[in-house]
Amino acid sequence: MKNRIKNCYIHIPFCNKICSYCDFCKLYYDEKLVNKYLDELEKEISNIYQGEELETIYIGGGTPSALNNKQLERLFKVIEVFNKSNNIEFTIESNFENITKDKLLIYKKYGINRLSFGLESINKSNLSLLNRNITKNKVEDTINMCRELGFTNINIDLMYALPTEDIKILNEDLSYLFSLDVEHISTYSLIIEDHTMLKINGVINIPEDLDSEMYELICKEMKNHNYDHYEISNFSKTGYYSKHNLCYWNNEHYYGFGLGSSSYIDNKRITNTRSINRYLEGNYVLESIELSEIEMIEYEIMLNLRKSEGILLKDFKDKYQKDLLDIVDISELINNNLLIVEDNRVRIPEDKWYISNEIIVRMLEGCNYE
Ligand code: SF4
Fold first, then answer.
1. Cα 206 from Cα 134, distance rounded (Å)
2. Options 3.20.20.70, 3.40.30.10, 3.40.50.970, 1.10.10.10; which CATH number does 7-248 get?
3. Which atom of ligand 1 is nearest to the CA of 22?
């Protein structure tokens, strides 16, 4: 099955300081290293990109806004090689700690039309635990500046379930977020990963019932403030769904360029190396796995069920020439109110999203591909 690629992710792995929970692919910012990295990124793109018209480009990190103005200009010159659709969604992640008006002007000049900021929390104890340093003044000045410069699509990331947090603190974080009136909010429950400072310091997760209570509160408050809950962890005002992230949940193909990035090209899941030395030598790929049709179908189910609209049965049939409901018997999941079939789609009801992983596993276990 050959699929046209419409989406592209670019990883900028540099940060000025390291957050205590972070297990992303990142390095400390170093001016010379960044310059070499941008040269190599240009080579990687020219080796792999086939000229397709792109509908989304997402520059993530790391912290892309850690780059200095000259490096940002260089990055955007590299990206000019892409053939962009007229209504492209063009996102860059930024950090409130190092964003400036000059950087926002560079974004504007090169066509960025969606900004994504990692706030995580505005509570001092939470920020101290996360090793982040953000003030309300800096956040509000930045959002005002973005609006004055004409940015109309802004995402903010919120983290919850921190051991320094209770329901009252989460409520305060939510109220603060709503006061900023941004178009999109992504939420993350803190996961304490191996090799992070939190893990090394022996920090442990909050009890699961509190985590679930926090998730419920977030869902309820988002609804009260007119944010659509369109994916398990993502909320947006009407018309502001993240097109780029939807490409992942729709199981579409996409390019990924840069250290540690992932691609899905010609039915292969490709993972780039996390070694900066190997990357700078031009050895970009760590692993390339060609998916069988069964694996493609499993991804299709797992990813699409994260969305409020679920799996569209017609799209599934068009893609795989099979009826989903012939492959899997979901009657028990339906009887237990864990899945709903209506309007030619299968979806998980919103009040069961907290246990979506269990539901997806049960559905996959029930698949019979013969
Ligand atoms: S800014 Fe992002 S990538 Fe960098 S250390 Fe913090 S969480 Fe990790």
1. 24
2. 3.20.20.70
3. 8
